[in-house]
Amino acid sequence: MAPNRTVEIVEVGPRDGLQNESALVSTAAKIAYIEALVDAGVRRVEATSFVHPKRVPQMADAEQVMAGVPRDRGVSYIGLVVNERGLDRALACGVDEANVVVVASETFSHRNQGMSIAEGVRSFEAISGRAVGLRVTATIGASFGCPFEGEVPVSTVASLARQCAEAGADEIALADTIGVGVPDDVKILVDAVRAVTDLPLRFHFHNTRNTGYANALTAVSLGAAALDSSAGGIGGCPFAPAATGNIATEDLAYALRRTGVHSGLDLDKVIAAAAFIGTELGAALPALLGRAGDFPGSLSAERAR
Amino acid sequence: MAPNRTVEIVEVGPRDGLQNESALVSTAAKIAYIEALVDAGVRRVEATSFVHPKRVPQMADAEQVMAGVPRDRGVSYIGLVVNERGLDRALACGVDEANVVVVASETFSHRNQGMSIAEGVRSFEAISGRAVGLRVTATIGASFGCPFEGEVPVSTVASLARQCAEAGADEIALADTIGVGVPDDVKILVDAVRAVTDLPLRFHFHNTRNTGYANALTAVSLGAAALDSSAGGIGGCPFAPAATGNIATEDLAYALRRTGVHSGLDLDKVIAAAAFIGTELGAALPALLGRAGDFPGSLSAERAR
């Protein structure tokens, strides 16, 4: 694939960013956070998760959040869906996209999803078959490594991508769930997945070991259509709040702009949205741009002269 | 240039890492920090700076540090030298290398060095001509951008590299002093500098806007011989202590190992050295590997099967 000059940023702060936070964020604050992100130019937002409220209490207000977000701004709202019951809820409240996770390691799949890899594929097939009118993403969790089993075979990831594509996925997302990958992993996985499907590729990186931005820029250079990120870089493990979040939307957008890749985001407004949710969480944010300040301009004429 | 399978890590924590810290670190602690780094496998250490003690009080004990570091472990010790008086001190206490900074923007050069760019080159020539027996590095500061002037022309950086090479430099280092660059900058600068000199290239990245690791891995992929980093990622601006340090040695070494690039470092021991200096500074460290934990293994057979 050729490098993209435009990439979609999928803002996942409202879902992946918040879901591990033990302090409950009010529905009003979640809606205000999403409104600020939309105002900053985000056009795909993973707004919530349709899981059992006992499992993820932070996402118990999924319907209320979806009822409150702006629907007249051209934004595509994504709900994380883990089973058919979740799909029913997602359909009922009018999300635009369903994100369905299939995990690429048996142990992690059992612990996280309560099912085997093969059962995960069947669950994806069932959800995809009934998700009429929704764009459906198959996110392959632990694509870059498993906290229990270590290395994950590339062939497993490619096989899952192929099966999900055959089952009707509209997009394949590769997730470095535990933040262990490096750019060479990205290249290897892109090659392997490209060999089995032409679907748009999306990537989900955590900056757990400081490799997330390198991976994201590599993915873009290899033709990724979309990247997940969270304003402020929220989304860390609850035991190390400022350490292991998603890559931050503002830092990613800075690097993309300087690389000459269009993301459509207003950096100052993303920083403001991050500051808002940081205040709600009462936590220091892993994102750096808000602290360091912008450095205006981009490569091109200036650098090449 | 072809990608390297080995890269030298130049540990700059004892110099760039500590120099902006307002709380004075004892000479004994500096020596213990360096000993821990040497024990972790570091073979090039920027140990101190020979500047006026009133300008950088933290480096006033340069001679005492150099008198205390282990000299029987095959380590090359580097001193930052800004003028001939500093060179005399460096020679007197037996450093192995002199690192001399020439800044690529007029305003920054005047503010940081008290001289114009052209005067900086003449100063480099004077120091290089008298640095008998020392390896001399020309570090081109603000190569990726200037906090006062904005974009820095690539032609200025290339011209400085050529002039310093002609003046006897043994190595050219390109420094992203304010942490604004992206991987495409690295490519542009490598191409421009490679057109004027075949000297070994070293890079100095700060992670100020979360692009430092991406830049470092790109530099290695383009044949960089050496990378600067600081254990723990210390070295930030005193006004934002945990935000804007050098790239962290342990996080860099992790990414290199997983990429299949040999750095010779023991990650656990680097983490321990970082924890030691973090305790001395009483500050949280920007490095992430010590918090996240290692993920053993590297690309290759495991990933390719």
Q: Top keywords for this entry?
A:
alpha/beta, eight-stranded parallel barrel, TIM Barrel, 305 residues, PYR_CT (chains A, B), metal ion binding (chains A, B), 42% helix, homodimer, 15% strand, Aldolase_TIM (chains A, B), lyase (chains A, B)
Explain this structure.
- 2 copies of one chain form a homodimer.
- With 305 residues, chain A is α/β, with parallel strands linked by helices.
- Chain A has a single domain (8-304), classed as TIM Barrel (Alpha-Beta Barrel).
- Helix content of chain A is 42%, strand content 15%.
- The first copy, chain A, has 13 helices and 8 strands.
- Chain A has an 8-stranded parallel β-barrel, surrounded by 9 helices.
- In chain A, strand 2, helix 3 and strand 3 (76-81) form a beta-alpha-beta unit.
- The model of chain A is unreliable at 238-243 (pLDDT under 50).
- At the A-B interface, helix 8, helix 9, helix 10, helix 12 and helix 13 of A face helix 8, helix 9, helix 10, helix 12 and helix 13 of B.
Summarize it.
Chains A, B: InterPro entries: Aldolase_TIM, HMGL, PYR_CT. 2 copies of one chain form a homodimer. Chain A has helices at residues 13-19, 27-39, 62-68, 84-92, 106-113, 117-130, 154-166, 183-194, 212-221, 249-259, 267-281, 289-292, 301-304; strands at residues 8-11, 44-50, 76-81, 97-103, 135-141, 171-176, 201-205, 226-229.
Give the overall average pLDDT of chain A: 93
Number of helices of chain A: 13
Sheet bearing the most strands of chain A, described? 8 strands, parallel, barrel
User: What gyration radius of chain A follows from the Cα positions, in whole Å?
Assistant: 18 Å
What's the number of structural domains of chain A? Answer: 1
- SSE sequence of chain A, one letter per element: EHHEHEHEHHEHEHEHEHHHH
Strand order of the largest sheet of chain A: 1-2-3-4-5-6-7-8
Superfamily (CATH H level) name of chain A: Aldolase class I
- CATH class of chain A reads Alpha Beta
Our estimate of the beta-strand percent of chain A is: 15-25%
Write down the CATH topology of chain A: TIM Barrel
Oligomerization state: homodimer
Task: Please tell me what the overall shape of chain A is.
Answer: globular
- What is the strand tally of chain A? 8
Helix/strand-derived class of chain A?
alpha/beta
- What is the name of the CATH architecture of chain A? Alpha-Beta Barrel
Which parts of chain A are unreliable, with pLDDT below 50 for 5 consecutive residues or more? 238-243
